[in-house]
Structure formats: C-alpha cells, structure tokens
Design brief:
Length: 345
C-alpha cells in the first residue's frame, strides 16, 4: 500500500526534521485585502479576553506544574514525557530540542489558562484511547487532546507539534497556536501523540474521529475544520490532507478545509490535497524554504489554493514568531483558512 511504503521510508529518517515563512503569495485564488475584517477579528472584537491569571509565573518549577492536582494525571503531558529533549527546570528557562524563540510569557499564559479553566470545572483534556487499548499498547498512555475552547458552535482546528517524531514539543509548537486560535473564537485542540510517523498519524486520525463523534458535546462545528502543524507536525497535517483519516485507521471523514504548515521540508502532494498555507525561516538549517515553495507552486498549478511565506533571519522552530520577522503569521493563516469557508466567500 502506498501510504505504508511512504511512512516506512520516513521512519528511517525520523530524526531529520521537517520545515516553512516576507511573504510570497502563490495562491491559485487571491484573497481580498484592505480594511475588510476577517471572521476571527470580528469574533475577537466581541470577546474581551484578558490576560489569564493563575498560580504560575516564570519562576515556577516545571515539576510544580506537572504535579498540580488541578491537572490530575495528565499534567505530565504538558511537557515532553522524555526529559532528554527538554532543558531547564522553570517555566522561564524551558528549552526544547530543535526549537528557537521560546517566549516564557507565552508558556506561563498557556499553563495559567489551562489551570484556570480546569479549576473552574471545564474539561481541558480528553483521552483518545480506552483503558483496554492502553493496556494492550502502553505507549497510548502518553496520548490525548488538550482543548482550548473558543466560541460555542465555532469551527475547530487541531494543532500538531513537531519534535522529529522523537518527542512532542507542544509547549512551543501547538499549545501557543491553540491558545491564540481560541482567543480568536475558534475551538482549538493540541494533540499529544506517540512518536513515530505511523503512530503519530494514527493518533491524529483517532483525534479527528473523536472530535467528529463528540461534536455536539464539544460544541464545535465540523465543517471546514483545519489542521495545523510545525516540522514533523506539519507532515502529519499534510499526510492527513493527502490520504484522509481512514487511511490511518480513523473514521472515513471529510478532509480538512485547510492545512497550515510551518518549517517542514515535506514534498509529497496530490490533486486531492486541501488548500494549504505554509511558512518557514530562510535560515532554517533543517528544512530548506525552497522545498516548501516548490511544493506549493506545484499544488497551485493544480488549482489548489495556496499561500507561502519565508522570513529572513529565522531558524527552525520559531513557533508564533513573537518579536521576529514572522510575527503575525498566525493571523494571516487564519485569514487563509477563513477564505476557504463556504459562508465567507
């Protein structure tokens, strides 16, 4: 089967990361510019979201956050399960392998937001597998979905962190994105998956299936959902767009309305791929920005809407890019996603 062949080959180079950012628009369809508000901006203007307060600050020990009783037994999944890929013992000095531009303020805002919501009785974490499934495969113990709830009934996004398929760098590569998307009114999920290309895609397919199955309970609109990912997470999002959830053991579901990829050197595509936004730093030593540019140009030639940005001076794993040439890229990606929504054309 082609999917298995592709993934088997990639498993041999798991630790070679993937990559994407002053923008070149190679879209097959252009978006209207000017003063027109995006849907996200309208939602954000209606929602007064103050900076979250909570018990944590930059001096808080990471182990204190992990073991806070409010997070029950899933607090350990907020940070890499394998400490080999993490350095630092406080929220302020956290460092993750292969990542740059980590903003301690964002890290604190993430854990305080989750703490605040969990303390208020909201569900911020969902298991993907049953106890029986975990017993059969103990690696599934280290999976789940963190939920950053937006407006009831709004569309949803799933954010997938990178980590070379060796670990999950969520605190830089999916939690910040999910938090910002929730501030814009969207329902955002951050996936903690099993390392490995095949297992990661299986967990993503399972997560999307879970969200569709529980859409009413979660208060999400499943139409034109989006998949986001950085580095290895970008590959996951792209594969799901190319092959669909059923190819990885999930339910047979619609493909995403948009895929958003950061800093990945992913080359593969098909005529069935969803509209795709991608960005990468020009000084990324792991993922050459020309690779993604060529991919999106080829997709655009097939009539698939695309948008590509590359940012001078930036290396791999810049996350939200706060304070860099990439700052604001997430809002551009949201606008691209919104342009694919049926009711926004």
């Amino acid at each position: 089967m082609r999917v298995k062949e592709v993934l088997a080959g990639l498993m041999c180079i798991q630790l070679i990361l993937t990559g994407c950012g002053n923008g070149i628009n190679i879209a097959g369809e252009s978006r209207e510019q000017g003063n027109k508000q995006t849907e996200a901006e309208r939602i954000s203007a209606q929602t007064d979201m103050e900076k979250p307060e909570g018990p944590f600050d930059e001096n808080t020990k990471i182990d204190t956050v992990r073991n806070d009783p409010v997070f029950e037994d899933y607090g350990r999944l907020l940070f890499p399960v394998d400490d080999w890929y993490m350095d630092g013992d406080t929220l302020g000095n956290l460092r993750l392998t292969w990542y740059s531009n980590i903003d301690p303020g964002e890290t604190v805002a993430i854990v305080n937001t989750l703490w605040q919501r969990a303390d208020a009785g909201e569900t911020v974490f969902y298991d993907l597998y049953s106890q029986e499934e975990k017993a059969a495969d103990p690696a599934k113990e280290d999976t789940g979905l963190f939920f950053f709830k937006g407006e009831p009934g709004a569309r949803f996004a799933v954010c997938n962190a990178g980590g070379g398929f060796a670990y999950v760098g969520a605190m830089q590569d999916s939690f910040p994105h999910a938090l910002e998307l929730s501030k814009l009114g969207y329902n955002a999920f951050a996936l903690i998956y099993r390392p490995g290309a095949q297992t990661a895609c299986e967990d993503l397919a399972r997560a999307i299936s879970f969200i569709f199955e529980h859409a009413e309970e979660l208060e999400v609109d499943t139409d034109c959902y989006s998949l986001w990912g950085g580095s290895a997470g970008g590959r996951m999002a792209a594969w799901m767009g190319t092959y669909g959830t059923a190819a990885f053991g999930g339910d047979d579901l619609p493909r995403p309305g948009a895929v958003v990829m950061q800093y990945t050197g992913h080359r593969e595509y098909s005529e069935h791929d969803p509209p795709t936004f991608a960005c990468v730093g020009e000084r990324d030593g792991i993922a050459n920005w020309h690779t993604m540019q060529r991919r999106l140009e080829a997709m655009s030639a097939l009539g698939i809407p695309t948008e590509f940005h590359h940012y001078p001076g930036l290396s791999h794993g810049f996350g939200l890019g706060t304070g860099t040439a990439a700052e604001g890229w997430l809002n551009e990606a949201v606008a691209f996603w919104e342009a694919q929504m049926p009711d926004t054309h």
